Automatic annotation (TrEMBL):
InterPro entries: MptE-like. This is 6-hydroxymethylpterin diphosphokinase MptE-like domain-containing protein. It comes from Prochlorococcus marinus (strain MIT 9303). It holds the Pfam family MptE-like. Residues 279-438 form the 6-hydroxymethylpterin diphosphokinase MptE-like domain. PANTHER family: 6-HYDROXYMETHYLPTERIN DIPHOSPHOKINASE MPTE-LIKE DOMAIN-CONTAINING PROTEIN (PTHR41786:SF1), MOTILITY ACCESSORY FACTOR MAF (PTHR41786).
Length: 673
């Protein structure tokens, strides 16, 4: 079979396998390929003289010694604590108190590393030629086999391509149907990701590894073509960057301790008899004449504070968490304060700020339903929103109309999303820097509370100069870029110097002519009109019934995952596919109860790390068996800790004679005995 016949065969198989539309998208290249022994010509031009020396051997060397992306693992010597003491330490904690106390978090298990079950990520279509040769020559004394690597040690192969012409070339050289059949026989997963746009390609890669095959993130082994195009070079850089797939996937898991506390806070907030508003989408008749200003506490805020003081009454101002102190200190009246943190320190800071500025209570608070239950009482008007991936959001799914797009990771993300939800399509960003020009000046001098920032990552700034940031702040920026990309009618304008932000325009608002044009004809919308669609709805009785149903779902989750683990005698690709269902953040099916989603969201951070340790103990059948036993003990311990805390919440709700207005972390702890 010559290369043209092979290509036609591959095209027919792909169309039958992935469908007409998808195959047409990735098979649109029309280059004329000629393969003559080791030489390759495309459209009459020689592109490879010797395929083996130019492609196969360099990739084989990488297969033998790949660059690895691995998640860090928790280890601890703290396994001897009493479960009641652990439960008390979890209440209001910002640390991961649960995971470090589990039996499988012992250093004896965590220190292991799985040398088998390799998950290869291949950048560039031609890398697949090396794997094909490896499969055909297994048992011979070739480069790879002499290095000790066998096909049986490969768990999966994910091929990533941005150039359809390069894929076209591969399909002239390899029988893809035969290769995939070989993978199935040898229990090797194979997946192909093709996308020409860099940002969409990165999102497809991220979604595949976090939502479809999350266990492969335990270790990704990277190989790449010698000749990468600019898009795959950018993807390679992103994969290994400090804000790349490792950090982002880790952040997307949430924290079990955090999820437990959000359930506690949300249960109290929803369980009270008071009626709070819930954020609902609004609309403005004249979007051009109405403008929102979203304020964050980046250092550039200070430089523009006088301009804001002069013009604040012409705009609707959303203050993001800590920036509110800077605004109050400069006598700037903001319309909304947006908060998404559940940390108890936020309550302490706001209480202190209210003593200093009594008009704080006049500002409408827009906050997550998971904030410290003492915070709403500091304000005259409160509007709740939901965080889309939180356990409490699934538990109280009847309020899903108030769910934001991402609602994080910081309050500034929530401010932008809230402003858009209320109808603003034009948003001006002040102090939204995501970094700083000077590391010694990381935020506004009058910003509320402490906020240690390392700012140890030099990146390109929006004014063409280097600024300093850190992965957490880049995540904030990335989330805003995602939101602005999804909602294409949103127009973002910013001023000041900070990290680059796509989908936005930078202006110098301190330029008198620019300011004059910007302010001209702006009409401020009243808060009453903005919130007219928001509804007042609270059902304490419904809240009371939630916890028992959640506990039943939690028990089912724990039993099911322990049974799934117990069935397996080794680590394999089919096992990984089963485990995806225990880590997925959304509905596994249209009929799945929301209580099951809530329990899975609570558990998945700890479960991910426990499975990582289980994976690293899978080299030996005996070690895997022991680790499975400790996995079961760990799952039971997590369930017990959660049940102890929820029982304390139920007792408190039953015995509180002040409508739960006397809530505090210490009060809850008293009911843990």
């Amino acid at each position: 079979m010559n290369n043209q016949q092979l290509y036609k065969k591959n095209c027919l198989w792909l169309k039958a396998t992935i469908g007409e539309n998808e195959s047409s998208r990735i098979l649109k290249a029309e280059a004329e390929v000629r393969v003559n022994n080791e030489m390759i010509n495309i459209n009459g031009k020689r592109v490879y003289e010797d395929v083996r020396s130019e492609i196969i051997l360099p990739v084989m060397l990488q297969i033998l010694k790949p660059r690895n992306i691995r998640h860090a693992k928790y280890s601890s010597d703290d396994q001897s604590k009493n479960v009641n003491d652990i439960a008390k330490s979890v209440i209001s904690s910002v640390d991961e108190e649960v995971l470090k106390t589990l039996p499988l978090a012992d250093k004896a298990f965590v220190s292991k590393e799985n040398k088998s079950n390799q998950n290869y990520v291949c950048l560039g279509s031609m890398t697949l030629l090396a794997f094909e040769e490896l499969s055909k020559e297994e048992g011979s004394k070739n480069l790879i086999n002499s290095g000790g690597l066998k096909m049986k040690n490969i768990n999966s192969i994910t091929l990533i391509e941005s150039d359809t012409e390069n894929l076209h070339l591969l399909l002239n050289m390899i029988d893809i149907e035969e290769f995939v059949s070989m993978c199935k026989i040898k229990r090797i997963g194979f997946h192909l990701i093709v996308e020409e746009d860099k940002d969409r390609l990165i999102e497809k890669i991220f979604n595949y590894f976090t939502e479809v095959m999350p266990c492969q993130l335990f270790r990704l082994s990277m190989v790449k073509e010698e000749r990468l195009n600019s898009i795959l070079i950018a993807v390679d850089s992103w994969l290994f960057s400090e804000s790349g797939i490792g950090y982002r996937s880790y952040a997307s898991l949430g924290f079990t301790t955090d999820e437990i506390n959000q359930i506690v806070n949300g249960s109290i907030n929803y369980g009270r008899k008071g009626r709070f508003k819930h954020l609902i989408k609004g609309s403005l008749v004249d979007n051009l004449a109405s403008q929102a200003i979203v304020v964050a506490s980046g250092p550039s805020l200070d430089r523009h504070i006088e301009w804001l003081e002069k013009n604040c009454r012409k705009f609707t101002i959303f203050a993001s968490s800590s920036s509110v102190k800077t605004l109050l200190r400069n006598n700037i009246a903001c319309d909304f304060l947006v908060i998404n943190e559940r940390n108890v320190i936020v309550y302490d800071l706001l209480k202190e700020l209210k003593c200093e500025y009594s008009k704080l209570s006049e500002i409408t608070l827009i906050c997550s339903d998971t904030v410290d239950p003492r915070i709403p009482s500091l304000f005259k008007q409160v509007v709740f929103f939901q965080r889309p991936r939180s356990s409490i959001c699934a538990l109280y799914s009847e309020y899903s109309d108030s769910m934001l797009g991402s609602s994080g990771p910081e309050a500034v993300n929530c401010s932008i999303e809230t402003a858009y939800l209320l109808g603003f399509k034009n948003i001006f960003m002040l102090g939204c820097d995501f970094g700083a020009r000077k590391r010694a000046y990381p935020r506004s001098e009058d910003a509320m509370g402490p906020s240690p920032r390392a700012l140890n990552l030099p990146v390109m700034g929006n004014l063409g100069r280097t600024v300093f940031s850190q992965p957490s702040l880049l995540m904030v920026r990335d989330s805003i870029e995602w939101f602005a990309g999804v909602y294409s009618d949103l127009k973002l304008i910013r001023c000041g110097e900070g990290v680059e932000l796509t989908n936005s325009k930078t202006i110098d608002i301190l330029d008198e002519s620019v300011s004059k044009r910007f302010v001209k004809d702006k009409i401020k919308i009243s808060n009453e009109r903005l919130l007219r669609n928001c509804i007042e709805r609270n059902n304490p009785q419904s809240a009371k019934e939630k916890i028992p149903q959640y506990k039943r779902s939690l028990n089912k989750y724990c039993k099911d995952i322990m049974a799934t683990i117990e069935e397996e005698s080794d680590w394999n690709i089919e096992f990984e596919r089963k485990l995806k269902g225990y880590l997925y953040w959304s509905l596994n099916s249209e009929t799945e109860p929301f209580y099951d989603v809530a329990s899975r969201r609570t558990m998945r951070f700890c479960v991910f790390h426990l499975l990582h340790t289980l994976y690293d103990n899978a080299d030996s059948i005996e070690e895997f068996k022991i680790a499975k036993k400790e996995f079961g003990k760990s799952i039971k311990q997590i369930e017990e800790i959660i049940l102890i805390i929820l029982k304390a919440v139920e007792k408190y709700a039953e015995h509180s004679d002040k409508g739960m207005e006397d809530w505090s972390p210490e009060v809850i702890k008293k009911f843990i005995v």
